[in-house]
Amino acid sequence: MDNYYLTTLPGGTKIISEFIPHVQSFTLGFWFNVGARDESLRNNGISHFIEHMLFKGTKKRTAKMIAEEIESYGGYLNAFTSKEHTCYYSKGLTVNLGRTFSVLSDLIQNPLFKENHIKKEAGVVIDELKDLDDNPEELLYDKFEEIIFSGNRLSYPVIGKETNIRNFVSDELFNFHGSNYNTDGLLVVASGNVKHDELIKLTEKYITERESKRRRSRDKFNHKKVEDAFIEKDVQQVHTIIGRATYGYNDKRRVPVRFLSALIGEGSSSRLFLAVREKLGITYQINSFLNSYNDTSAFGIYFSTNQNQYSKVIDIIYREFKKLKEIPITERELRKVKEYLKGGMLLSLESTTNRMMRIANSIIYYDRIIPVEEYLGRIDRITTEDVQKAANELLNDSKLIKVILKSDTK
């Protein structure tokens, strides 16, 4: 933990850094605790839209200047919005930390939200939405979370609805930005060859103190019984997700579930990949996933196949589920999946961007930096009994639903 430093300024901004002396670069991220989960039906998509709009220029810089000031020195600038937070980040050479900080801080604090920019960017975001609609897999993931999280704002898609996107106006964007982009909700996170004292000075120089006027609380997620769903779309294959809502970051039982997801369908040596693709060759894509939030996760198996093979794939998936519930996995398979998870984690640490994101997520969800050794220890402590217990809880037939996308639902 010696290379991690954390400071909270009087205005509430948290500055977290990881010093890596042997690199010549850094990744710097500005994180806000706002996403689709904090929206209403009427403004769903506004967090993502504001993320786009902040790149359209500030009082000091045009959109072109923002991009050029980073890229002309070999840097990289990007952002993303999720259901629970928004992040603006940049990667650059250590000598350019001050310049990068200046651009990012200007970007997040001084938007213009000009009406002509809003109309133009609405067209861009609607094109992005239509690209998602043209991608059966992406469309299915959104629909799956909409169903399993129904009754909670987690069900809202990050990109929002076309009607909302077309109707955003300057005042609405300023109000949402003013309510959510405050210093007491800001994390400044850096990983790489950066000095923590310099980050503090840069934050004090460039970030204007602005605390939230009111505390916003999120609706707690409550599990509800949900039903299978069908989406009709002009596609060649049948696309399906089988899954459910399960434990979030705040539940220790998530760790065996993460293990189970890897065992079932991550990588080409996973059970379903071997049973369905390698052995029978009846699907190109089959994989498991675990998308986690604070108080719940979306677990599922996604696959696509032709109509004639669909029933066979479903049968194999449920047969594998039954095996996992009834037969303990071998010590050899236990070790294999542990090494897969630990290896993936350690390889991700080769990137300062991944390291920055890991630190931020650790602070957001656990309010502390989880040491790598602690994460590896959690994986190492998983037993065959833990896996079987997780399988019996997670793969309960009465709790699993299917969301199916195909050309004809009859």
How would you describe this protein?
With 410 residues, the chain is an alpha+beta fold. The protein has two domains: 203 residues, Cytochrome Bc1 Complex, Chain A, domain 1 (2-Layer Sandwich), CATH 3.30.830; 178 residues, Cytochrome Bc1 Complex, Chain A, domain 1 (2-Layer Sandwich). Helices cover 44% and strands 19% of the residues. The strands form two sheets. Strands 1-2-6-3-5-4 form a six-stranded mixed beta sheet, sandwiched between helices. Strands 7-11-8-10-9 form a five-stranded mixed beta sheet, sandwiched between helices. Helix 10 packs antiparallel against helix 11 and helix 12 runs antiparallel to helix 14. The model has no long low-confidence stretch (mean pLDDT 95).
Largest sheet: 6 strands, mixed
Query: How many strands appear in the DSSP assignment?
Result: 11
Q: Pairing-aware structural class of the strands and helices?
A: alpha+beta
- Spatial strand arrangement across the major sheet: 1-2-6-3-5-4
- The CATH class label of the largest domain is Alpha Beta
Task: Give the second-level CATH assignment, the architecture of the largest domain.
Answer: 2-Layer Sandwich
Q: What's the overall geometry? A: globular
Assigned CATH superfamily of the largest domain: Metalloenzyme, LuxS/M16 peptidase-like
Instruction: Return the average pLDDT rounded to an integer.
Output: 95
What value does the Rg take, in angstroms? 23 Å
Strand content: 15-25%
Distance between the termini: 58 Å
CATH fold-level label of the largest domain: Cytochrome Bc1 Complex, Chain A, domain 1
Helix content: 40-55%
* Unreliable residue runs: none
For the record, the count of structural domains works out to 2
How many helical elements?
A: 15
Series of H and E elements: EEEHHEEHHHHHEHEEHHEEHHHHHE
